[in-house]
Amino acid sequence: MFKNAFRAFSFAIILTMVVAALPSGMTFASSADVTLTTTLRQAEPITNYLTASSQISTLDPQRADDVVSINVIENLFLGLTNYDPMTPGAIVPELATSWDVSDDGLVWTFHLRDDVPWVRWNPDTDEAEMLRNVTAADVEYGIKRACDPRLAAYYSNMAKQVVEGCDVLFDMAAEDITPESYDVVNVKALDDTTLEIHLQFAAGYFFSQTPMWIYRPVPREVIEEYGDNWTDVGTIVTNGPFVIDELVRGVRRVYVRNPYYPEALAGPGNVERIIITVVEDAGTTFALYQDNQVDASGVPTAELQSVLEDPNYSDQLKQVADLAVFYFGFAANKAPTDNVNVRRAFSAAVDRQAFVQEVRQNRGVPMIHFTPPGMFGAPPINEVGVGYNPDYARAQMAEAGYENCAGFPNLEIVTYTGAGTWAEFLSASLERELGCDPNLFTIEQQEFSVLLETVDKNNPPEDRPNMWTLGWGPDYADANNWVNEVLYCEGQNDFMRPCSEVDDLIIEAAQESDPERRIELYSRIEDMLFGEEGVFPIIPLFMRIDYVLIKPWYDVPVETDGLFGGAHWDWRSIDQEMQLAARGG
To answer: What is the mean pLDDT of residues 333-338?
Structure first.
């Protein structure tokens, strides 16, 4: 997901709110300068009031690559399968009711429902128009479209690696693509309710990808008629539990229940409408929460201790692990971080436990490898990787030719906004453990989208920083989503790490069908990345744990829902009488 305001990263943001580190002095309810109002039609629908700090990039399932967009798409479009909101990592039927796999693992056959309609919502009349039912041909078109290079979609690379023929289409020149070009992708609608997907190899992780947005059906005739405008409010055609009623960039977003959604698919929640107001400042959201104008809020860093100590919040405060792992990335094509001994030394100089305590206020779990617990193939925490080891760090620095940091050149570190303290902690660690003068390190904070442009691998080395902060949240529950999608040398690889033996193992693990063998391979891969002889493309730091506040009238499975792909709004319930009383009637 950090999928994502953090690109797939997937950065899994609970309850559509970005919880960020903020400066002190956040305003409380008495000084909040934002007021959320109710949009009444006749009677007040059961409404979930939330805020978001980020804009939606797209409502197109094949184009989405950020957590804000993916969270909405989860509720507008059905997948072949879905992740169970109550059981993290468990996959359940959705559009597909059952599936078969060939003996060689290369052909997957999905049997689909025949009662899910395509719906267009008219926000002017508050009416839904039912067009036709979703068929296997819609899923076939969606998957083939995900392979089209003209979309310039981040996640196309994921489909390219596993679906047969997807790589052929993806590698075509844009000017050479015709409607017939899609036929090279070996996905077939055998009839209206039967879909056949051929894989390039018996990918042990493919099934865990089937809930993903890139494999979701889209209405071909609507896309061909409206082009890039097919996702406009009032034009878009969807099939999920909610429809979009309003989208005013920088102001708010409104969603209402799809009246034609099959009852058999609906979750147990009673929410009829979601109103998400854009509020960029987490302190203001917290103030609105105190004023009962929103049903949930993050906890700004400046207010965390007082909230933890306040008995009034004891029943409202929940601690949530979202499986996002944050790290410092290295530019392996720029001195001095092109030196593997420097990378090893820097990583081993960081006391992650102290970082989590001092910088994150215990909102995290220290990580010395990349794949977090809960993912298939993840090694146990602290069993693979060097971690904090000052003696090893000093030995590696000396081997790099910089004993006691003598002669070490200047180095640039870029963080996203709010993470400057991370780089300051790193600088202090390098001074304490390696003897490096803090003045060697230039630290700059950048808005997230700017940071992504800055570290892009297509930039010349002199225009890229040596190090930067990023994070990665899960798209699907498999170690392949971590070591392959992020670190593989022939993948996105903004680190520009040269290929080595570990990359052969990454591909072997992806193509291995025996689960026990895959687990063994992923343990070896993490050791080759972060063990004593590791290549260290990144410094793993921590898996995020954060706090959220939930009003007493709001029932939401916040601890388990939304870890993969997006939260399920039809699993949320509101005690409307209690909510309206708190909001002043």
So the answer is: 96
Q: Look at strands 273-278 and 467-472 and give their pairing.
A: unpaired
Q: Which residues pair with 415 in a beta bridge?
A: 445
SS3 370: coil
> In whole angstroms, what is the distance from residue 298 CA to residue 124 CA?
34
- In the chain, the amino acid numbered 528 is M
pLDDT digits (tens, 9 = 90+) for 503-537: 999 999 999 989 999 999 999 999 999 999 999 99
Give the pLDDT confidence score for residue 563 in this predicted structure. Answer: 86
In this structure, are residues 558 and 548 in contact, taking their beta carbons and an 8 Å threshold?
yes
Residue labelled with tokens 């999920």: 240
Asked if 348 and 387 count as a contact pair (C-beta separation under 8 A), the reply is yes
Of 215, 204, 213, the residue nearest 484 (C-alpha): 204
Tokens 């794949």 locate to 371
Q: Would you say 393 and 436 are in contact if contact means Cβ atoms under 8 Å apart?
A: no
Instruction: Write down the residue that tokens 């146990």 correspond to.
Output: 380
pLDDT category, 31, cuts 50, 70, 90? very low
Across the chain, what does the average pLDDT equal? Answer: 90
Q: What is the pLDDT of residue 284?
A: 95
The helix (H) or strand (E) run that includes residue 108 is strand 107-112
Against a cut of 0.90, is the pTM above it? no
Question: Distance (Å, rounded) from C-alpha 203 to C-alpha 160?
Answer: 13
Classified as helix, coil or strand, 277 is: strand
DSSP string, 519-577: HHHHHHHHHHHHSTT---SEEEEEEEEEEEEE-TTEE--TTTTTSSS---GGG-EE-HH
Distance (Å) of CA 450 to CA 414, 420, 464, 482: 10, 15, 12, 23
CA distance linking residue 28 with residue 48, whole number of Å: 22
Report the C-alpha gap between 160 and 178 in whole angstroms: 18
The structure tokens listed for 177 are 């693509």
Domains and CATH numbers, the chain: 1-76+241-316+551-585 (3.40.190.10), 78-239 (3.90.76.10), 323-544 (3.10.105.10)
pLDDT, tens only, 99-123: 999 999 999 999 999 999 999 999 9
pLDDT for 78 beyond 50: yes
Token pair for 13: 């943001």
Residue 247 is which amino acid?
Answer: L
Question: What Rg do the C-alpha atoms of the chain give, in angstroms?
Answer: 24
